[in-house]
Amino acid sequence: MNRRPGELRLRILSALALGPLALAATYAGGITFAVLIMVVGIAAAVEWGRMVAPELGLVGDVAGCAAPVLAGVTTMAAGPGAGAAGLAAVGLVLAGAFMRLGGRRAGAAAFAYPYIGGGIIALIWLRGLPDIGLGLVCWLFFAVWATDVGGYAAGRIIGGPKLAPAVSPNKTWAGVAGGIVWAVCFAGAIGLLFAASRPIVGLAMAVAVSLVAQLGDLFESGMKRRYGVKNSGQLIPGHGGVLDRIDGLLAAAPFLALFQALVGETIGWW
Question: Exposed, middle or buried: residue 252 (CB in 10 Å: 0-12, 13-18, 19+)?
C-alpha cells in the first residue's frame, strides 16, 4: 500500500477524533446511540447513491436520508423484525422507481437501503439488549477497528501475495492474518473488561467477525472499482467517505446480531 506519511497521520487523527465519539454514544445508549447510528447511516446511504447512480441527484439524496431513519425509528418502536420488513418493502419500491428514472444502474442504488439499514437495525438491537448490550457493541467496535488497523499495518509491513487484486489491489493475505490477530487481541481484552462468561467462545467469534468484516471491506472495494471511484466520499480526512469507514461494520453487525439471536443467549457466551 503506497500511502503517503501525511495521509497516514490524517487517518490516525481522524480515528482518534471519531472513536471516542462513537464510544461515548454507545455508553449513553438509547436515543443518543440510535441518532448517531442513523446520522452515520444517512451519510453512507447518500454516498452509495452518488457513487452508483449520480444521475438520480436530489431524489437519490432524499431517499438516502429517509431509509436509515426509517430503519432506526421502526426498530426502536417495534423491534428488528418490523424494521427489516419495512426496509425491505421500501427498498423494493425504491428499486422499481429508480429503474424507471434511470435504468438498471439506478435500481442498484436502492440496494443501499437493506445493505446499510441492516447494519443500523443490528446495532440498535444489539445495544438495546438488557445488561449485555453495552459490552457487545463495544466488543464489536473494537473487533472491527482492530481488524482494519491490524490489516493495514500488516499489509504495509509484511506485504506479500495479494488477496484479490482484481477487486482490491492493495489487500494482501498478510493483511488478512494481521487483521484477525489484532481482532482476537483487542476483542479478547474487551471480553475480559466486561467479564464475558465464555471468553474462549469470544475469541473464536472474534476470528469470525474479523473475516466477515474483511469480506464487507472487499465488497465495498469491488463496488468502488466497478463504478470507477477511489473513495465513496471525502468527508473523513485520510479515510475518504463514511462508507469507506464502516464497510466492515455493516457486514459484521448483522452477523453478530444473527449469532446472538440464534445461539448467543443459549450458550451464554457473554
Answer: buried
Measure the CA–CA gap between 255 and 249, rounded to whole angstroms: 10
Residue 114: per-residue pLDDT: 83
Which among 8, 1, 76 has a CA at the least distance from the CA of 37?
76
Three cell numbers, residue 91: 427498498
| Residues 123, 38: Cα–Cα separation, whole Å | 10
Residues in the chain, pLDDT under 50:
1-5
Q: Which helix (H) or strand (E) holds 206?
A: helix 199-227
Helical ranges in 4-157 per DSSP H = 5-28, 30-52, 58-78, 80-102, 104-109, 112-127, 133-157
pTM beyond 0.85: yes
Domain positions in the chain: 1-27+132-270, 30-127
